[in-house]
Amino acid sequence: MAPPSRIRSAWISLRRTRTGQELSDATQRLIREADTGALQRAGLARIVVAGLLLMTVLITTGSIDITNPVAVKQIWVAELTLALFGALGWVGAWLASKRIAVNRLPTITAVIDALLILGNLGYSHWGLGVPGSFFTIFPVIWVVPITMAAAAIHYQPRLQAFVAAIYVAGLLLLSFGGPATTQTERSEDLARLSGLFSDQANLVRLVMILAAALILILVARQGRILLERAVRETTLRVSLTRYLPTELAPILTEQAFSSLREGRRIRVTVLFVDMRASTSFGETMDPSQLAVFITSFRRRVLRAAARHGGVIDKFTGDGALILFGVPNGGEDDAHRALDCGRTLLRLIERWNEKRRFDPPVRIGIGIHTGDVFCGVVGDESRLEFTVVGETVNIAARIEQATKGTDCELLASVETVRDAGEDAFWTAIAHDPLPGVTRNVVLMKPVSDKPIQLPQTSS
Questions:
Q1: Is the Cβ–Cβ distance between 312 and 245 less than 8 Å?
Q2: What does pTM read for this prediction?
Q3: Neighbour-count burial for 317-333, b at 16+ CB within 10 Å, e otherwise
C-alpha cells in the first residue's frame, strides 16, 4: 500500500492539473477568440464531412440492388445519422458566429456526436438484433476518430478525456452488455452481415479515413494559428514595454495600440510628485547609498500608484508623473488620484519613522484634471508614450506651488469637484502659477481621510 504522504502528493498534483495556472486578461482574450474560431471551423468541418460521407453512401448504395431488410434499415439509419451530424455542424457554427454559449458548445456538440454514433450502433444491436460484439465491422464506428479529432481542435484535455470516456463506456456496454454467443452463432451472424465487407462498404471506410485526415489537418492548422497569434502578441508586448508604461503594455490590444499610435484627446487626472531638498541627501550619501535611497523612494511611489490604479508615465530623477484615466477613463479617476496622494504621504511618513532620516524626507504633490493629448509619438527607431497639454503643465505648476504654500498636497478645484470631496478641501490664496494664463483655484485638505495602508515591509 502506498504511504499516505505519496497519496497526498499525488492528490495535490491532480488538483493543480485540474485548476491550472491563472491566466492574464490578454491570454484569456486570445483563448476566447481562438475558441470562437475553432467552433466555427469545427462546425464547417462537420458539414463537409457529413456531406462527403452522405454522398459516398448514396453513390455506393445506389449502384447495387439491396433486398436484405436489415441492410436497408441500416443504410437508412446511417443516412439519418449523417444528416443530423451535418445539421449539428451548421447549428454549432451559427451559434459560434453569434457568440452564443461559446464556453459550453464544445461539450454539447461532442456529447451529441457521441449520442448519434452510439445511437446508430445501439439501433443495430437492440433494434435489428445484431450482436453488440460486432460493432467494429460497421463503417459508422470509423466516425469515432473523426469526432474525437474534431474535439481536439479546442485544445481542452478535460474535454478530450470526457469524450473518450463516453465512447469507451458506450462501446463496452454494446460489447459486453448482452448475452454471450457461441462460436457457431457468431459465424452465422457474420455470414448474414457479409455485405459489410463489400467493395462499397470498404469505399465508405476509405472516405472516413480521408475525413479523419481532413479534420486532423484542421486541428494542426488551428494549432498553427494559435502559435502565430501567441508569437505576434508576445512580440507586440515586448515592443510595447520598451516605450509604454509598465501598467499599459500587458492590457493593450493591437487595436488599442493603433489608437494610441494615432493619438487621441482624453480627460485624465495628472499627479506630479517631487522630493524636496533631495540634493542634501545626495551630498551626505555615497553613490551606493543614494542609489538604494532613490530606489526605495520610487518603490513607494509604485506602491501608491498600483494601490489606486494609477499609471506611472515616467520617473524624473526624484519625482514622478502619474496618470489616472489612461488608457480608458472612469468616473472615479480624480478620487483615486487624491487617494493616491494621501497614501503616498502616509508611506513617506512611515518611511521617515522607520529610517529616522535627518532631515526627514519631504515631498510635494500637485494634482489637476483636464483634457490632454495622449499617444505614442516618434518614428519607428524611437517611439515614446506621452501626454501633453495645458493640464500637464498646470499639474506640474501646482506641485511647484506646494513649496510656497507650506502644504505637501495641493489639488485644483476641478479635481476636487470631480472627486466629490468638496467637504474635505478648502481654497487657499497663492501667487499666479508661472506659465499659466488662466486663473487656477488651488485647494488643500482640511481633514485627513482615513487611508488603510497595506501591511508590507518597507
A1: yes
A2: 0.52
A3: ebbbbbbbbbbeeeebb
